[in-house]
Amino acid sequence: MTALLSLNGLGKTWFGVPAVSDLTLEVAEGRLLGLIGQNGAGKSTLMNMIGGVVQPSAGGMRWQGAPYRPQTAGDATRTGIAFIHQELNLFTNLSVAENLYIDGFPHRLGLIDWPRIRTRSTDILKRLALNVDPDTQVGRLSPGERQLVEIAKALHNDARLIIFDEPTTSLTPRETVRLFETIASLRAEGRTIIYISHILGDVQRLADDIGVLRDGRLVDSGPVGDFSVQRMIRSMIGRDLSGLFPPRTGAPGTSAVLQAQSLTQPGVLQDVSLAVHAGEIVGLFGLMGAGRSELARILFGLDPCASGSVALNGAPVPKGIAARIAAGMAFVTENRREEGLMMEAPIADNLALVSLRTFGRGLLAVMDTEAVATRTEVTRRDLMIKAGDIRTQPVKALSGGNQQKVVIGKWQMTGPRLFMLDEPTRGVDVGAKFEIYTLIDRLATEGGGILMISSELDELMGMADRIVVMNRGEVMGQMARPAFDRERILSLAFREALP
Amino acid sequence: MMATTDRAMDIAVRHATYVIFAAVLIYFGAQVPSFLMPESLANIVKQSSFIGIAAIGMTFVLLTGGIDLSVGSVMFLAPLIAGYAMRELGVPVPVGFAVALGAGLAMGLINAVFIVWLRVIPFIVTLATLFLFRGFGTWLTSSTAFDFKEDFRAFGLSSFAGIPTPILIFAAVAILAHVVLAHTTFGRQIYALGNDREAARKAGVNMRLVEMKVYMICSVCAALAGFVLIAQIGRLDAGFGEGREFDVIAAAVLGGASLFGGVGSAFGAVVGATLIQTVKLGLVFTGVNLYLQPMMQGAIIILAVLADGVREKRMQAMQKRTIRSMTG
């Protein structure tokens, strides 16, 4: 059988850090390749290179034996490659048919030829057994139906290779079953599929071949018959961690800073209980869509929660975000560019943001700019933020690691009791990671409780006193540092039973 | 599946402006039956044409998520330039008509160059040109009123097959805009761009070209609106069109256009402009204190925007991502 797509020594380096290196892989025509790997293993970078979004820095690709060098997303589409992303690329204000045709409407007498579009769209939708009118607005469809529209787009563009990236994340079980039926019918048409997923059982059921990525390399591959779930997990993990993390300087205390009881929000959380003690770093692990960030948002009062209780230092938390900040909560969001920082504003302004009201003087609360300057300078030195003049230099001029320190710093200035850190080292290079770990350790040693959310298990195993594992909005289990077991944590996160 | 009442509510919320419109017509009709006579209805449409034509153009801009504050000044300057051409150069009215549209096109191009090529935000660019265009006209006239020739006024008061010319032009613009928005690639690309710029770029939409055209269309519509109204009056005062940009935006928004882009239609703008005019005339008919009229306009806009908010909330509730299935 000929290879539809082959990758030869493909590599991509971001600012000296390899995301994918020396990757050689063949995707055989008509087969389904299941691609697995931990978060950050290089799957997205690989997909972006195939999709023409990112240009490889080494190696090359071939499509049906001929060199394939996509420069834009359009090149990939024209070649016959389609992507079904977790975040769908659909126009919610346009109809289903329009979404299929937006990159090229057929015309008749100078106007869009609607009858032809409708006929052809209806045909495609019928093939997918999607029973909606092609004139329906995409915004009125469910996530599952939208995904089928994306697949319809792939069929409309006559894609020969369809790449699914975590397609079941936002689907209900029934929609998932339907997706699998659709995938089966796509295969019956002879289309080639790459299926990326964290749900190992699904991969095992669907795939012909399996490829395992770790640290940007293909570390294991073969026909699915050779792969047990255990082998998949074992291939995905494993590396020496010494020297990547600072030693912990303190030990967790016994008084609970945070005590959450039976938090339930339909569709999001189910009976989640969690405690964080003074001086303790609790790692919250889970795969994409496990509900980790959602839990943090609920604890901070950003999202509603139907039932359950949250206590801070033994007292029930007050309502509202401002009151929770005053009570000693801090939340460093996962998306620092959009939620955590004012990128254009000077560093000092960003640092002072959360504690602004403490700098107001007199009846009109006029800002005491001198006090702001002195206080923010203390924080800068304290956190070793590498910057020039923090009163003029905008945050966007800082490196990712230093930006993250500014986010942590602005919360530290409020003297919080509970820190919730969502992906604190995302997009931060290795050296700066170490500094942020040191900072986190210090916050704990100073008596704060830390809830550290991360997709990188290594970093949680290196930093946390205790790890809590979530899956689909439920706590699957937890273990203290002496009992850390990588395979057990992953199997809890993947919800796969190990013998 | 939605319950029947829920569904009825859904439809009412989605077409709030039409519901309000129907309610307004029924209310005034019940108060003063002569309000629903063909003459008074025709009068409403004729008086709506001025704001309506400009609101159709504004809808194009709003659909991309932009805004054009300069339309009031374009309404003033474009007919003025046409007036000079007709009075000083003696060109006939149809040529003057073309001159006005050409002037509008040029002003739209100025807006577009700053917004699309120099990437200055639309609000600032059109705020600046609001003063520039008006200032240029004020300098030309030394702030005095400009009187047009008689044949120009004859054009404004003419009618064709018993239908006044302004209504015909209004209808022609509305139909043309609808065809462009709903049945051409350009039109559908406007909607796509307003919904998700990044996705539109990926889908191969020529963003710059689309945005340029949109601002030019808006200014041409404003020029046309000014020309048609001045043709009925025959005289251009120094303050003509001042503050009208807000009437125009209000009409477009009332017609369902979203300031965030991606939502709106040509007929929506027509309905929005006509609704505002209906309320104005209705208040005259029922003898309500005229000074209450701006408050009524404000109240109606709030009502429509409220409905829009409810609709948006419902949409979001439908799209809320869930991790677990709601049953399990």
Brief overview:
Chain A is of the alpha/beta class.
Report on the structure:
The complex is a heterodimer of chains A (499) and B (328). With 499 residues, chain A is of the alpha/beta class. Chain A is 33% helix and 27% strand. In chain A, the strands form six sheets. In chain A, strands 6-9-10-3-11-12 form a six-stranded mixed β-sheet, with helices on both faces. Chain A has a six-stranded mixed β-sheet with strand order 18-21-22-15-23-24, with helices on both faces. In chain A, a hairpin with a 2-residue loop joins β11 and β12 (217-223). In chain A, α14 (400-412) runs parallel beside α15 (430-445). The longest helix of chain A is centred in the middle third of the chain and has 16 residues, at 173-188. The mean pLDDT of chain A is 86. Chain B has 328 residues and is mostly helical. In chain B, 75% of the residues lie in helices and 2% in strands. Chain B is built from 14 helices and four strands. A two-stranded antiparallel sheet of chain B has the order 1-4. A two-stranded antiparallel ribbon of chain B has the order 2-3. In chain B, α4 (71-88) runs antiparallel to α5 (93-117), α4 (71-88) packs across α11 and α7 packs across α11. The longest helix of chain B is centred in the C-terminal third of the chain and has 27 residues, at 207-233. The mean pLDDT of chain B is 88. At the A-B interface, β8 of A face α9, α10 and α14 of B.
